[in-house]
Amino acid sequence: MRTARRPALTDRPTSELAALPRRAPLSAHHPEPVLDVVVPVYNEENDLEPCVRRLHAHLGETFPYAFRITIADNASTDRTPRIAARLAAELPGTDWIRLAEKGRGRALHAAWSRSRAPVLAYLDVDLSTDLAALLPLVAPLISGHSDVAIGTRLARGSRVVRGPKREIVSRCYNGLLRSTLAVGFSDAQCGFKAVRRDVAERLLPLVEDQGWFFDTELLVIAERAGLRIHEVPVDWVDDPDSRVRIVSTALADLRGMARLGRALACGRLPLSALRRSDGDLAGELPTGLARQAVRFAAVGVASTLCYLLLYLGLRPVTGAQAGNALALLASAVANTAANRRLTFGVRGRGGALRHHLKGLAAFLVGLVLTSGSLAALHHTAPGAGRVVELMTLVAANLAATLLRFLLLRAWVFPARDNDRLTTGSS
Q1: What is the C-alpha to C-alpha distance for residues 148 and 258, in angstroms, rounded to an integer?
Q2: Which pLDDT belongs to residue 299?
Q3: Does 404 or 181 have the greater pLDDT score?
Q4: CA distance 314 to 294
């Protein structure tokens, strides 16, 4: 047994660290284990041995690199520690650590912090997720394509067997994450994740939760920092003997969301220390606010000119209000498409319909502002000429444009959609 300890890295302020180097593939002749799979356990005397033996056999048959399995026992009171020690002695490449306190997040933090493997993963001891997805999960991290990888039960291609209560709770939780923290990943709760060690070294000191919210907090911080998250559709069968207490876990998750939301809003997280140095591959999502604002402004100028020309052409036929609505609708569709590609770096057709529907919702804000401005102008100055009308619309459009940019950045394109779409998991 090895007692978990915190590495020296966590004693250094994250803000003082240099930017992450560019991702690079791992050598095919890596001298040490490339992958460390952590199995966090608490009082799992029945499931631990069959899980570890099955995992060990699967990795031995299918994984082309050296690997390690780490059993992270967090304060079990049954025979789990004895079984873990025996497995570590019998199975090559198997290790175990014991923590004095409970908490899945605490167990993962300890196991990942002490590991020297370049790719770190974990899976639940019940093996609800089919192990066939393990190699596709870690392959993008080994190749240097991605920073974090997650299994998802909510993507197209996933096959899931579980009861209606767990299904509803899971979808509500992930929907709440999208609406409150504007996340782009699809499934925060699947117990099947991996991360590159250089990324974990920067992320772990920032993650406060020691329980079930650990995964979500790590993913949100990674996404906000602009790291690439790869999603793998999985086959997943619910464990009817799950130890998760839904009510208490849900309350803890809500508190975690509130805490994390405040930290992000106040800028307390040093996200710059998680960015890759020397830029990244061409075409990725521009993360800088200034860079996005410049591109948005350029698109906005073009769409405003388009809008004004359409309005001038439609007004004699449809009238002021109808002409304004039609011109604004046409330019809004073109504006969303251009911003999707140029400002926020999203490529491919995946998610396009969702983006345009959200873009139309943002368009309604502009419609209310411009139509309201026209109505106010016609009410206060019925004889106002065409020039005054156009000046009023331009002023209203400026206000609508600012609101639209904020909506696009925080709601329509909140995260690295380009990464998710190019990996085929949207």
Answers
A1: 23
A2: 81
A3: 181
A4: 30
186 vs 298, higher pLDDT: 186
For the question of residue 417 being annotated catalytic, the response is no
Q: Cβ(186)–Cβ(216) under 8 Å?
A: no
Rounded CA-CA distance 19/341 in Å is 27
Distance CA 353, CA 361 (A): 12
Residue ranges in 7-161 assigned as alpha helix (H): 48-62, 80-90, 104-114, 134-142
- Residue from 4, 76, 60, 196 nearest 52 by CA: 60
**Contact status, residue 284 vs residue 418, Cβ threshold 8 Å:** yes
How do residues 214-239 score in pLDDT, each as one tens digit? 999 999 999 988 899 999 999 999 87
Quote the pLDDT of residue 277: 63
Pick from 118, 29, 107: nearest CA to 70:
107
Indicate the pTM of the whole model: 0.66
| Residue whose C-alpha is closest to residue 329's, from 365, 369, 305, 360 | 360
114 in Cβ contact with 4 (< 8 Å): yes
Query: 147, 215, 417, 419: which is the annotated catalytic residue?
Result: 215
pLDDT band of residue 245 (cuts 50, 70, 90) is low
Give the per-residue SS3 of 67-80: EEEEEEEECCCCCH
pLDDT score recorded for residue 130: 95
End-to-end C-alpha distance for the chain, whole angstroms: 42
Residues 124-141 as b/e (b if ≥16 CB within 10 A, e otherwise) read bbbbbbebebbbebbbbb
Q: Evaluate if residue 153 carries a pLDDT over 90.
A: yes
- Residues near 209 by beta carbon (within 8 Å), at least 6 away in sequence: 105, 216, 217, 256
102 burial (CB, 10 Å; 0-12 / 13-18 / 19+) is middle
Q: What is the DSSP string of 163-200?
A: -HHHHHHHHHHHHHHHHHT----S-S--SEEEEEHHHH
Specify which of 99-103, 273-277, 406-410 reaches the highest per-range mean pLDDT. Answer: 99-103
